[in-house]
């Protein structure tokens, strides 16, 4: 009987294990997770911090006990500290007793996820400075806020997690300053769309410090953070949240001699196989293939982790499955504003070698005369000559962001902008103008190609 060992108890690893169990009831499976939790939504942490989600337990999709009941034995508080791909064994440390032992495998799945970027600056380890990646991180920040009642918060980093954490703090009636080293928040957007995000943030009372580098974190005599230090001066802070993104957690794989790609993630093929025989990897620790640029990218999203885990679970039980790649679809929310993107922006398209054109159109989320109609801005990017749709970006209020899925589906299937403009989309005044903003954007960009 074969033995499957899974390293990591969140989305990718446990989806692989659960899929394998459903397909093969006789397969021996054991999973190791260094924390006390399994299968939770890290994407939900900002909403737990804000109080919109009442309990951290609500973010847990499947507990260790539930996994065990379904035939997937998972050992929490157990960390895999080494992999021997030749001997086919892993070294496991019990974090409660410090005991170590070797565990054999026939097939290994690495789902070690990602680690938050933490700057190596003076004061970065001070009390009151928080990264936000794991459920333990979320609980620690939540407890700090409950105990300390901060009045001034500084969020460092203007990407997805930074914006979501800024909203969370604003929801708690805390004064929020967001620091971003680049000239716009949301660097995955083109500058003209990033400017709209900046305006939206200022509109809800968030102070922006763009083009600003952090040099250190000043502390009180008791060791707690009191300010974030920049070249322009100190910004008072009772709490600091680091939203600087994440990097793939690949050290375990690297030390095992498994190939790491040029983007910093574990290099895998479409079947999620690594360079080592009988070793698979999935989730935030791997590189994915971008269907438009043809390059390897690291995209830390639970959607991809679950799909990749399912591919692994099928393949390790004798099936044939392949992960088809990514196109960079993402969405976030900042209070009343919704921000979404998919495919390539203007800069990305040019960098990938496309001769691209772009348009930006302003419309409304509903028929203009219908109560509650709000502005929406759509940007479309297409390839000159072929007319192929390459990318889309959307910013607006309620009803704006999920329109990105229409564009994502079109881009995935290599549709021309002119064909997208004629799609049979649903229409009624409470939901859309007679020409949906996505159709208008596609029509306008099609006229340029």
Layout of SSEs?
Layout: E1 3-7, H1 11-23, E2 28-33, H2 45-50, H3 64-69, E3 74-76, E4 78-84, E5 89-94, E6 100-104, E7 107-110, E8 114-116, E9 129-131, H4 135-148, E10 152-156, H5 160-171, E11 175-180, H6 191-203, E12 207-210, E13 214-219, E14 225-230, E15 233-236, E16 239-242, E17 246-248, H7 251-255, E18 279-281, E19 288-289, E20 296-297, H8 302-315, E21 330-334, E22 337-343, H9 346-351, E23 356-364, E24 375-383, E25 389-396, H10 404-412, H11 417-420, H12 437-446
Parallel strand pairs: 1-2, 1-7, 2-3, 7-18, 9-16, 10-11, 10-16, 11-12
Antiparallel strand pairs: 4-5, 5-6, 8-17, 13-14, 14-15, 19-20, 21-22, 22-25, 23-24, 24-25
Helix pairs in contact: 1-8
**How far apart are the first and last residues' alpha carbons, in Å?**
58 Å
Low-confidence stretches: none
The level of helicity is 10-25%
- How many beta-strand elements? 25
CA radius of gyration? 23 Å
Strand order of the largest sheet: 3-2-1-7-18
CATH architecture of the largest domain: 3-Layer(bba) Sandwich
Q: Mind telling me the CATH class of the largest domain?
A: Alpha Beta
* Class from secondary-structure proportions: alpha/beta
How many helical stretches?
Answer: 12
Largest sheet: 5 strands, parallel
CATH topology of the largest domain: FAD/NAD(P)-binding domain
Number of domains: 3
> How would you state the average pLDDT, rounded?
95
The CATH superfamily of the largest domain bears the name: FAD/NAD(P)-binding domain
Shape call: globular
Proportion of residues in extended strands: 25-35%
